[in-house]
């Protein structure tokens, strides 16, 4: 029992609590199914429905997590930082200053001033 608790705490520190809870539920279902097969224990209809619901819920959670990560990856690839614009000095000997804007109108105005 101590070993199980130690492993559970290690797992909980490495994964999200919801993922840990789903894994724990799925572990219980697997134990029920293995016991039913190995010891030839008959399962009630309610037990089968509960096991199917747990397996389906775990699958749906896994698919939702996968979709969420795919959306985050797409947003990260889509977002690119704006390019800096260097404004030329006005014959004063001051070095150019980089100006970062994301608006095209501001870029055109800055370029026309130089």
Structural class: mainly alpha
Strand order of the largest sheet: 1-2
- Using the CA coordinates, give the radius of gyration: 29 Å
- Main sheet record: 2 strands, antiparallel
Number of DSSP-assigned strands: 2
Helicity range of the residues? 55-70%
Shape: elongated
Terminal Cα span:
74 Å
In terms of DSSP E residues, the strand content is 5-15%
Ranges with pLDDT <50 over ≥5 residues?
none
Number of helices: 4
**Mean pLDDT score, rounded?**
78
- Strand/helix succession: HHHEEH
Q: Which features would summarize this protein structure in a list?
A:
4 helices, mainly alpha, 114 residues, 69% helix, elongated
Describe this structure in words.
With 114 residues, the protein is mostly helical. The protein is 69% helix and 7% strand. The protein has helices spanning 2-14, 17-38, 45-78, 104-113; strands at residues 84-87, 97-100. Strands 1-2 form a two-stranded antiparallel sheet. Helix 2 (17-38) runs antiparallel to helix 3. The longest helix is centred in the middle third of the chain and has 34 residues, at 45-78.
What is the compact description of this entry?
By secondary structure, the chain is mostly helical.
Reconstruct the topology from this structure.
Blueprint lengths: L1 H13 L2 H22 L6 H34 L5 E4 L9 E4 L3 H10 L1
Antiparallel strand pairs: 1-2
Helix pairs in contact: 2-3
């Amino acid at each position: 029992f101590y070993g199980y608790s130690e492993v559970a705490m290690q797992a909980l520190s490495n994964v999200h609590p919801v993922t840990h809870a789903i894994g724990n539920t799925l572990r219980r279902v697997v134990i029920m199914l293995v016991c039913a097969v190995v010891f030839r224990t008959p399962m009630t209809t309610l037990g089968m429905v509960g096991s199917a619901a747990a397996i389906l819920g775990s699958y749906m959670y896994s698919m939702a997590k996968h979709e969420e990560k795919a959306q985050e990856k797409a947003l990260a690839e889509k977002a690119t930082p704006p390019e800096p614009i260097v404004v030329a000095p006005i014959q004063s000997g001051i070095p150019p200053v980089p100006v970062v804007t994301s608006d095209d109108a501001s870029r055109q105005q800055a370029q026309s001033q130089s």
